[in-house]
Amino acid sequence: MNLPDPNQLIDQLAERIRPRLQPECALLGIHTGGVWVMEALVERLGVDLPRGVLDIAFYRDDFSRIGLHPEVKPSSIPFEVEGRHILLIDDVFYTGRTIRAAMNLVFDYGRPASIRLAVLVDRGGRELPLCPDYTGVKMDMEAGQNISLEQDEGGRLRLMMKQEAA
What we know:
This protein is an alpha/beta fold.
């Protein structure tokens, strides 16, 4: 399967987001791929918006089952959330559980005026009633297939497809 170029997808996302950006908007990228997408979007949008990083490890509903990921990083929201329009950014949208966890974390900081969701890839497979507002590409994937965004040492982004062992 030929995977789309993440840079072209980010360009498309920026064009979709630009007309709906509000002056009191702030960006939150979900660690790690969502942060990479957020930084690339900021560059393309050419605006200096407040931004932060979310690590939702402690907010996951499967935390007690899978334990703590060895690379947990602290979340950083260096702006007032209360009353602000938030653009939440992630790389791959799957079941919706990561987004639910991210929203729970955001509400611990205050009550935003709104939360919109931008994702690079919507791979299908929703388990919660959530839907991205902005999507780079929608790909219907079979169970056992996974897609991830990876960044090389030079900072270049690429999508990688993996098949789970049966």
